[in-house]
Design a protein that fits this description.
- This protein is mainly α.
- The protein folds into 2 domains: 1-23 and 145-277, no CATH class; 26-142, no CATH class.
- The protein has helices at residues 3-24, 26-50, 58-76, 86-102, 107-132, 145-169, 184-204, 210-238, 253-275; strands spanning 173-175, 179-183.
- Strands 1-2 form a two-stranded antiparallel sheet.
- Helix 2 (26-50) packs antiparallel against helix 5 and helix 3 (58-76) runs antiparallel to helix 4.
- It is globular, with a radius of gyration of 19 Å.
């Protein structure tokens, strides 16, 4: 099977799983993204250990990230109050205490990589829950999948549009030091197609004004591009091409979620300040 065929087939499976998990129910959303957060963290900590920059216990810290995501789900959906985060806070305290006994050669670097994985991967994925569960005017908390779905669709449309326009017309490098293949032409091409796709969401969800859909699509492009560049910076630092090889034709899980990891913050701020305010 050619690389293009592998990439296409993997992409179809990936998109289908993401869309179905978001749309079916809150529990399918919980299930799939619980898996995603573990796989992304496992990949990240595996890269750190492979480079011999630290000796991080991957599964223990993957469970820490999973604990954060599940706690955020239970809190955002109204099942538990804020104290549901206490076990995760205990996990953080345990990291500091166990460092006293681990005898790491460089304990500061060791802890820094652990918390980098939590802040870079676990926290933004956990924050998806705050986007997914708005509170209605009557005070009821509901599962609202369209906002999460739009975030992913905007990322996918931007990636596709930027790739096509960049291949056809890309001449001016966007950030050559970190990602030599990205171009300004590709960036604006992705922006154009993503903004255009926002009108589809405005049509199916008219309760949110079209200009807010445009705003959401634009910030996803900007912050998603920065998220992609941040992961490229990390890969250059680690001297690797892909974060893994678990997704044929696409690299690793982090390669598929990199744009999301910064875009989540921007979408959450926009939604809370302008749409749900």
């Amino acid at each position: 099977m050619s690389n293009f065929a592998k990439r296409t087939l993997t992409g179809i499976v990936y998109v289908t799983l993401i869309v179905l998990s978001i749309l079916l129910s809150r529990y399918s959303f919980l299930f799939l993204f619980s898996i995603a957060i573990v796989l992304c963290l496992r990949e990240f900590y595996g890269l750190v250990n492979a480079q011999k920059r630290a000796r991080v216990n991957p599964w223990y810290n993957c469970l820490g990230g999973l604990l954060l995501f599940i706690s955020a789900f239970l809190y955002a959906s109204g099942i538990f109050p804020l104290y549901i985060f206490f076990p995760y806070l205990l996990y953080i305290v345990i990291i500091f205490i166990t460092e006293l006994y681990e005898k790491q050669q460089d304990p500061i670097t060791h802890m820094a990589y652990i918390f980098l994985g939590q802040c870079y991967i676990a926290l933004p994925i956990a924050l998806l829950n705050l986007i997914a569960f708005p509170e209605t005017l009557s005070g009821e908390i509901v599962y609202y999948p369209i906002m999460i779905l739009s975030l992913f669709v905007f990322i996918w449309v931007n990636d596709t549009g930027a790739y096509i326009i960049g291949i056809l017309f890309g001449k001016h490098r966007l950030f050559e030091r970190i990602s030599p293949k990205k171009s300004w032409e590709g960036f604006f091409g992705g922006l154009f197609f993503t903004v255009a796709s926002s009108f589809v969401f405005a049509y199916f969800e008219p309760n949110i004004p079209y200009f807010h859909w445009i705003g959401l699509s634009a910030i996803v492009v900007v912050f998603g591009t920065w998220g992609d560049l941040v992961e490229s910076l990390m890969k250059r630092t680690l001297e690797i091409k892909d974060s893994g090889n678990t997704m044929p034709g696409h690299g690793g899980f982090l390669d598929r979620f990199d744009s999301l990891l910064l875009a989540v913050y921007a979408v959450l701020f926009y939604v809370q300040l302008f749409i749900r305010n």
